[in-house]
Design a protein that fits this description.
- By secondary structure, the chain is α+β, with helices and mostly antiparallel strands.
- Strands 1-2-4-3 form a 4-stranded mixed β-sheet. A 3-stranded antiparallel β-sheet has the order 5-6-7, with helices on one face.
- It has one domain: Methyltransferase, Cobalt-precorrin-4 Transmethylase, Domain 2, CATH 3.30.950.
- It is globular, with a radius of gyration of 15 Å.
- It has 4 helices and 7 strands; from the N terminus they run αβαβαβββββα.
- It starts with 5 loop residues before the first helix and ends in a 5-residue tail after the last helix.
Length: 162
């Protein structure tokens, strides 16, 4: 069960756009990097949400009706998501719900700041030789934490109290 009204989430009400990522379809690489960034919670905003099956325009506003996810794809996506989340270092698993919007199914991943920060994600889930990076959210984008940002992330997470 979502701790927020889905309509509020889809219309950026009560949740800042920096904390919401819309994905028209399932993309394991991009989704895992965003989950990693939300788990790192660099700006201490409380993590974020990834909505799969919901497209957005160039300004990041959701386009209605949503694209949706076919019933035949739901289990496949869940299995791939489980495998991908186990690749995070340390492993991290968002809360997952399937919601119905305009008679179409969307998958909502709620990713609060993780207790075992900092988290790293592979640049490519399917790559044979994985290269891990720290990711954070900057405004409404997921970016690799490099240099000073990486050092700040490591410093901030050393102070996280569970």
């Amino acid at each position: 069960m979502l701790p927020i009204n889905l309509n509020d989430l889809l219309h950026h009400q009560k949740v800042e756009s920096e904390r919401i990522e819309y994905k028209a379809g399932w993309n394991p690489d991009a989704t895992l990097r965003t989950l990693c960034a939300f788990a790192n919670d660099f700006e201490n905003l409380g993590g974020g949400y990834v909505v799969i099956g919901q497209d957005c325009d160039a300004n990041g506003q959701p386009i209605f009706p949503p694209v949706g996810i076919a019933d035949s794809q739901l289990d496949k996506i869940k299995q791939e998501l489980l495998a991908a989340c186990q690749l995070l270092q340390p492993p991290y698993f968002p809360a997952l719900t399937v919601e119905i919007v305009a008679d179409r199914k969307v998958m909502v991943l709620r990713a609060p700041g993780g207790m075992n920060r900092p988290y790293k994600a592979p640049a490519s889930v399917s790559s044979r030789h994985k290269i891990w990076h720290y990711y954070i959210r900057r405004y409404s984008s997921t970016v690799e934490a490099k240099g000073e940002m990486e050092q700040e992330l490591l410093g901030l997470t050393a102070n996280v109290v569970g």
